[in-house]
Amino acid sequence: MEPKKNPKANLDRNIGLYFAIGLALITFLAWRGIEWKTYEKSGFEFDQLALDEELDEEVPITQQLQQPPPPPPPPAAPEVIDVVEDEEEVEETVIESTETDSEEVIEDVEDIEVEEEVEDVDVPFAVIEDVPVFPGCEGVAKSKRRSCFQEQMNKHIRKHFRYPEIAQEMGVQGRVYVQFTIDKDGSITNVKMRGPDKNLEKEAARIIGKLPKMTPGKQRGRAVRVPFSIPITFKLQ
């Protein structure tokens, strides 16, 4: 039996070509469809627009112009000043010259006595020229009055010495340093104490308070104040 198909009529022979042509045609139509643009017809006519016409707009006034201040008033006319003549006479001050005339006679001036200022100073006992005289040392030579003063001072302390009972009970002992001043009239002033106990200091002040009045010390023949210091020892037996 013979086949019904004609071998020359085989459609599958060029199928690849047909497919490529169709794909290219579809791609072209799709691209044109995407790029296709349409414009709406506008009903506005440019002839109706008159550019030469000016728009009249009312501009609102936002701020009023300030009026300039009035000019200052003219200055007042100066008052007329009456000149009054001064009838009072002014006395002139005459300054006399201090220059001396060669013909003037200068009188001699008597010598002026200048009083020496007396300085109120304290002269220590160790350097004073004339030491204070303790009662009982008046007949001693000046060169021995210093040692006589020391002896009489020690005798006075031994004579009036009394150990405070409260200091004995407490067992307090030590040395009290006493300083006083023999004033220009020979009296004892400015007594100061420094010791280990107030009771001992009080006893030392009592002993110095019983010192007699002395002949004051002298420096260059003038009475001066003489400070003097001495230790008083309190020792328990």
Automatic annotation (TrEMBL):
The chain crosses the membrane at residues 15-34. Residues 148-237 form the TonB C-terminal domain. It is found in: Cell inner membrane. NCBIfam families: tonB_Cterm. Belongs to the TonB family. InterPro entries: TonB (IPR003538), TonB-dependent_transducer (IPR051045), TonB/TolA_C (IPR006260), TonB_C (IPR037682). Its main location: membrane. It comes from the Bacteria. This is Energy transducer TonB. The lineage of its organism: Bacteria, Pseudomonadati, Bacteroidota, Flavobacteriia, Flavobacteriales. The keyword Transcription regulation does not apply. Residues 67-77 have a biased composition (Pro residues). Pfam families: TonB_C. Keywords: Cell inner membrane, Cell membrane, Membrane, Protein transport, Transmembrane, Transmembrane helix, Transport. The keyword Transport applies. It comes from Sungkyunkwania multivorans. Residues 56-77 are annotated as: Disordered. It is a single-pass membrane protein.
